[in-house]
Amino acid sequence: MLSMIKANTQDIEKEYLFQRDIPEDENGFLNEWHNCTFEDFRAVILPKMMANSIGEQLPDGYVPQTFYFVWEDDAIVGQVHIRHYLCESLVNGSGHIGYYIAPGFRGRGLGTKMLALAVRKASKIVPEDEIYLQVNKDNPASLKCMLNNGGYIHHEDGIHYLVRIKKLREGDYGDKD
Fold it and tell me: Which has the least CB within 10 A, 11, 21, 100, 158?
């Protein structure tokens, strides 16, 4: 069973190893902390992740975002970023949700399940009626995850599909938090 857990200090060792190993850019999922040291992760990166979720330590033009690690049993299999609302650059950019699945866990349907969890969380956070996502046109697996979660292609540009998913209504979240 999958679970999404906010970045936290209790799981720092596993979070660090996972974050360090995410490529700098894979299919549009950007990781500025690729190959970071444990000391940097502990002292700077993890505190920044946690602060960003409450709107602190944000670079100019950024909105609050919560970083989640996605767990299957005791292993981290993915990461999700949920941006709390849209600014102009996010409307036709990366949108509300960014997600990454580690290569060793791909091809098992986890992306669809992980995105379902993310949509559930985002539905409680974002004020917009739809959840905005962006996917590279050369990433059909991610597009399929979005479509499997009720997404539709709203429009496209030269290299991206911009997808929208209707927010879940209260009572449709499927959990108690």
Answer: 158
